[in-house]
Amino acid sequence: MASLPIPEVEEIEAIYGLEGAVEATSRYQRLAAAFKEKYGQAPEIYARAPGRVNLIGEHIDYEGYGVLPMAIRQDTIVAIRRGGDKLVVANLEAEQYPEIEFGTDPAQALDVAKHTWANYFLSAYKGVFEHLQSKGIAAPSPVGLQVMVHGTVPLGSGLSSSAAIVCSSSLAIAAVLGVAGSLTKGDVSEFTCTAERHVGVTSGGMDQAISVMGMPGVAMLVEFNPVRATDVQLPAGSTFVIANSMAVSKKAETADRRYNLRVVECRLAAMMLAVALGKPPGEAAAVTTLKQVEPAIIDKYGPGAEAQDKAVRELLHEGVYMPEEVEGLLQRPLASIYEGNASALRVLGVVGPEGFRLRDRALHVYSEAGRVYGFRDVCKSDAAAEDKLSQLGSLMDASHASCAGLYECSCAELDALVGAARAAGALGARLTGAGWGGCTVSLVREADAPKFIAALREQYYAPLVAQGVVKEKDLGECLFASKPSSGAALMKLK
Ligand code: NG1
Ligand code: MG
């Protein structure tokens, strides 16, 4: 499946479904009109890519483990044409997202310290050229591009607005430069993941993969190295309700103390496990993911979640590891292990007495990886739908507990919202995406969804409306049931 070419779709209905088509059409029309007014001509082509909600499997994609997201209908659309001698990146919502210009040199550096929305476009631009170079495909000479973007995925909400803009921009750029024909979905999933790291977050590949490979009606088990996606049919009568905690997670801006710190902690945990399992320091220092040490754990402790949990508790000590302890065991400075890895070096530069909580992070990653396959197996099983729902709910609850307790990526607002969701009748509820703010996802019986949404409005959102944090009229964008939607596509409008 990963080797299918990117579809070029002419009909909006094919993507947005009958219900969404009218609204989508008017959005594309507004984008086209604003584009023509600004640049004097119509776009040559459009591309769109959706956000996603992760049902289970949090903070494990960068450790090499499979995750289970679905694409949502909210997306980013990009209109583009060749022209001028710069990259002019404008947004339909110009007041909120001011226009930014870049030169056309694909090798230009991206300023991580100056985070702007258009950095995501530039990361896509660099990514397209880097991909062509890595495949030995002759790159076209850089030309000026005129671009206009419109997104409906809420920012900083764990629904991957970032992947939506990086993936749609990449497709648009590749198409207008005439190289889209040589790309497969797998190529785009992989190079957009690498490209997004230019923005300064050392993310895994889940968001880009599901944004590119999502399919209507099914969630996907996304696995890595190489990236691939398998359909997961969700049980009949189930609905997933997304709710925004309204705490904004500024992931790129806080990366050194949150997201990128966790990525560093996981690798340190993997190296410490390798040392404890008897690997010589040089070999241990070369380990990069927790997945890589799993075979050695199984050799000694046997397979299964319990054995893995026992192993981690025996091999890693409680509490905090400081850099000196890790360096002593690896017999080399961390700066040498991370040479050339700018984001990890930034993390090491700011680490304080809170150090690294390696045992907790490893316990989360291994148990969460197991829950992903558990979730898939429940969906595939021939149990009664009602039993499936309650088992999936328990897995989601356990995932949230692990994210909050062991991985410390929740926050007061997310915990309160998860609590309110369970009180309102969710069969399971958890944070989704990186956490530290953003959204939760709740499993609800389809028939109960309206009642559930009304109860959550009352319990969680009414006070926020009263405080002026959110407007009543915008609640539909904060709290909604979502069906699995289709992945990225190039579009020519009729
Ligand atoms: P969000 O913050 O939801 O976009 C991030 C990472 C994912 C994954 C999740 C946690 C990016 C682009 N994505 O998602 O790869 O690690 O956190 O599971 O940073
Ligand atoms: Mg993101």
TrEMBL record:
The Galactokinase N-terminal domain, residue ranges: 34-82
Residue ranges that the Swiss-Prot or TrEMBL entry lists as coiled coil: none
GO terms (BP aspect): galactose metabolic process
Residues of the GHMP kinase N-terminal domain: 119-214
A matching Pfam family: GHMP_kinases_N
InterPro entries registered for this protein in UniProt: Galactokinase, Galactokinase_CS, GalKase_N, GHMP_kinase_C_dom, GHMP_kinase_C_sf, GHMP_kinase_N_dom, GHMP_knse_ATP-bd_CS, Mevalonate/galactokinase
Gene Ontology, cellular component aspect: cytosol
Keywords: ATP-binding, Kinase, Nucleotide-binding, Transferase
Superkingdom, taxonomy of origin: Eukaryota
Keyword Nucleotide-binding listed: yes
Family, similarity comment: Belongs to the GHMP kinase family. GalK subfamily.
Protein name: Galactokinase
Organism: Tetradesmus obliquus (Green alga)
